[in-house]
Design goal:
The chain is an alpha+beta fold and 450 residues long. Helix content is 37%, strand content 17%.
Amino acid sequence: MTATTAEGPLRWLFLDFDSYFAAVEQQENPHWRGRPLMVVPLDKAEATMAIAVSRQAKAAGVKRGMTLAQARALCPDIAVATARHEVYVRWHHRLLATIERHAPIDLVHSIDELSIRLGRGQQEPCQARLLARNIKRALARVAPVITASIGLAPSHLLAKVAAEMDKPEGLRVLAPEDLSEALLHLPLEELPGISTGISRRLARAGVSDVAGLWRLAPRQARNIWGSVAGERFIRALHGEDVDLPPPGPPKSFGHGRVLQPDLATPSAAWPVACALLLKAATRLRRARMVAGEVTLAVRWRNATGGREAAARRLGWLAMEDVWRAVLPVATCDSLALLRALEGLWRRLEKAAAGQGGGRRGVQPRMLRNVHVYLSRLSPESARQLDLFADTDVRWRERERLWAEIDRLNRRFGGRVVEPASLKRLDLKYLGAKIAFGRVPEAPDFDGPAP
């Protein structure tokens, strides 16, 4: 682990786009500019929750995660946009190309966050500020509504903290000599890397605020975290340019969707779950990996009206169920993965019938969302085969077949080849989902650049 001293120059620029999804919608739709706006995953659903809100909506008290009804109670004139993730990805790549004309991007953390390691001619505060302002001006020429906040600091951790301090459109420098004064007023939970679990560990060690955290020695932090990550965190908090740990291999591939009301029954949601699994399997094959486990996770809709008390007695208000299937042999064969999902879905159908076992008067539960994950990953070349497993002898041929299907879909776009059972399902809201921490490559999306 290498580090520079706290007295060294600035080393990192962290850029965080402000209210990114909502800003893109306002950039694309001039009549929404300057108006409160929320972005929702589904249209025609009053109970759907906001995945992003504009700065104007935030000023009115609307927050991410609020339902449309809650948002309208606070801000009756709020505009509503249905998420268009493929548009957000195209803008993401265009904005990154604009930034890279000024400095090479070191790491893209998510669709709205990135960091740049400052070069030797950019590490003094005046030079770093000039770079940040040049990036802001360049972005404004390309997309005047999509703004960014920038943090400059000696360590990557502090640069991320600085980027959050003056949002929106902020530019904050955390110089080494100003660190303690600048940080001590912050709530402990607002520091990146202080999860709920770490907060509990710190509380047990007598640390309840940033001042107590600041006083920890690296060795103490290592003991509290239970790993070298604690030592890295404290050194970075004091301004040391600690090397970022190299990204490890993916631990899972998965997709999930909030379900439209007409897809809330198990029978209607089954094709959606199949489509989610097929998307995850495509990413699995692209990474040249195989999966040894399929996981199905669902969230149920709340019981309403006169059934609420009975639903509570039956346990219906437990909002999430998870089922897992371990495969006899790790694979990337979509058909084998679908068979495993089918077994999990039968368990979901039993759960949906309610704890009354389908007796008269017990209404089935309705689904709010569904998630499918492929885990227990290993490289294709390192797959461990089970000599005694009852495995179809044609599994290798099927894996090659699915690889060819992937190639055709990439070449001709979308769903050129897919199972016939999915043809009847309108998957327009399935097609381009973005996880906040994962951004598809630009070739995954067709259509003109914004």
